[in-house]
Write a structure and sequence with these properties.
434 residues; alpha/beta; 2 domains; four-stranded mixed β-sheet; 24 strands; 25% strand; binds ligand EPZ
């Protein structure tokens, strides 16, 4: 299996260009099947999750023509409106966001079947709010043999109050409501940048969605949607990950192709712990020369500090001076990386949804295993800061959300290679005299 091999100690210095937002792309790619016309979508991150969703779309007969690494044409014209619109287990097991096709297919064909997504390494990940929304729109939702079956004679607009701020439920309900009769209001909606991007994409197809980015989204259903040519926003979390890596390695990095506003909570916390952050129109520069200071973090829905940045922040604080506290309010099991970090010398105690972090001077490289996507990215940052060599296993998790991570790190002066054979490991050790 492929692994990342990292020799730590080099501060990251230089420029990095951020790719398209994975969590916007997954909603947008699914929404594209809601029209029979051609949807051209650009700035798609070339990561495992987007490749898997495109396979799922082809699996139900959707037309997918790759124009280049980051651009695709999708049309739903070749999907047969029949009983067998089934997103099967294979795709759901790979990425739970395949369930976005439920909202898209229900909206367009008034029927869809998707394998029930399991939990994953960060929590149980229920979908009760998605089902609540579909039922409010008039769909009958049943769960049978691990499949969710949603069907409706017709979908009628409704006033839906989400019990939990849910990104997935907000996007899924927004898609189904876009082609429902009448007006839908989603209260307590998620406000993440990717919600706004999916709403903008649907509006570019002729939908009528207002208020995305606030906690009340108003949708007037339309008869049908047309084609579009759309470019996805930059990835807030990839940008945040490189900001954290710059600070943790005491580097100086210009992170390009970002929307600084989307990074406000991350920039604010970096400044609070002693980093220097400079904002430009579509870039941020992060510089740190001194050891970082401690702080308190509570993960919250946007615009609060993002849960997807929690592990990366934890690594930075684990090397900071003093004691920091992180409380994870979104997911119930998002500290699995702590055991791995402890092998590198971190001093972190987890009590329930809170991590108490006693900063240490340095990490020592070790063999570690990525428990999930963002924890894996955090272990890369830890390896870049550690003395000696760190070998990270199960990097397929990291490859779900980071395109050419090792190439971007190397371009910033980090020593990081993707290795698979003993030969490649030996070559790395010889090349870097470790
Ligand atoms: C999205 O997951 C992201 N994934 C996650 O990013 C991100 O961590 C999460 O939003 C929060 O920002 C994608 O966009 C593909 P939620 P999602 O529904 O939609 C509870 C990454 O690293 N909940 O906002 O599944 C749920 O258990 C990934 O890129 C219900 O109770 O998250 C959680 O506690 C990891 N019932 C909270 O809401 C529901 O029906 C937020 O979940 C749905 C959710």
């Amino acid at each position: 299996m492929e692994q990342y091999m990292i020799k730590g100690g080099n501060p990251l210095v230089g420029e990095v260009v951020i790719g398209g937002a994975k969590n916007a792309a997954l909603g947008i790619l699914a929404a594209a099947v809601m029209t029979d016309k051609a949807c051209y979508i650009d700035n798609i991150p070339n990561v495992k999750d987007t490749r898997t969703l495109l396979q799922a779309i082809e699996g139900i007969g959707g037309l997918v023509e790759r124009q280049n690494t980051h651009r695709v044409m999708i049309s739903g014209s070749t999907i047969q409106n029949s009983e067998n619109l089934v997103i099967d287990d294979e795709f759901i097991r790979k990425i739970r966001a395949s369930y976005y096709l439920l909202g898209a297919l229900l909206g367009k064909y008034k029927r869809a079947q998707v394998a029930l997504p399991g939990g994953c390494n960060i929590g149980s990940r229920p979908i009760d709010q998605h089902i609540k929304g579909f039922e409010a729109l008039g769909a009958k939702v049943t769960i049978d043999h691990g499949m969710i079956i949603a069907e409706a004679e017709e979908l009628r607009g409704s006033h839906i109050y989400l019990d939990v701020v849910s990104v997935g439920a907000t996007i899924n309900i927004m898609m189904a409501a876009a082609l429902a009769e009448g007006k839908t209001i989603i209260e307590n909606a998620a406000k993440e940048p990717h919600i706004v991007d999916v709403a903008n994409f649907l509006n570019s197809m002729g939908a009528n969605i207002k208020g995305a980015g606030t906690d009340v989204i108003r949708i007037r259903g339309v008869k049908e949607l047309h084609g579009t040519d759309y470019s996805i926003i930059p990835d807030q979390i990839e940008a945040g990950t490189f900001m954290m890596a710059a600070a943790a390695t005491k580097g100086d990095v210009l992170i390009k192709n970002v929307i600084p506003k989307h990074l406000d909570s991350i920039s604010a916390k970096l400044v609070e712990i002693g980093a220097y952050v400079e904002e430009f129109d579509d870039a941020v520069r992060v510089i740190s020369k001194e050891r970082m200071k401690s702080t308190q973090i509570k993960t919250l829905p946007y615009p609060g500090f993002p849960t997807d940045m929690q592990p990366q922040m934890a690594v930075t604080l684990a090397l900071s001076e003093g004691t920091s506290i992180i409380s994870e309010s979104i997911f119930e099991n998002r500290f699995k990386y702590v055991d791995e970090l402890s092998r590198m010398g971190a001093k972190i105690k987890v009590e329930g949804n809170t991590a108490i972090i006693d900063g240490v001077e340095s990490f020592a490289g070790a063999n570690v295993v990525a428990p999930d996507l963002r924890a894996g990215a955090a272990l890369v940052i830890a390896g870049l800061c550690a003395s000696g060599v760190t070998l990270i296993d199960k990097i397929e998790y990291i490859q779900r959300g980071y395109e050419d991570f090792e190439g971007k790190v190397r371009a910033l002066g980090g020593i990081m290679e993707k290795v698979e054979t003993e030969q490649e490991i030996k070559k790395f050790k010889f090349q870097y005299a470790v």
